[in-house]
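FAQ: What does the model actually see?

It sees only this:
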Amino acid sequence: MDTITLVGLAAAACTTVAFVPQIIRNHRRRSAGDLSMISFSVFTAGVVLWLVYGLIIDNLPIIVANVLTLGVNLINLGQMLWYRRHPSTAASSTG
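And it is asked to produce this:
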């Protein structure tokens, strides 16, 4: 694998992992009310478009980055929807 591809895969790892702490925080707090549904939705749409672009040009780093980031962001969006529809599951303290 060439250096350019490795740099792309490293960038993919960083941008994907960046959202994992948010998932953990949402789960611990049993809340995602302070997150913007519009922002995450638009970001997720952008990730889908990047994925399509990566598939069209057959670029492994773009494909891997966006498949993983899409999965992470779908979890975030799912948490937002769940906790907003089920506020009784929220933890009693938001520490």
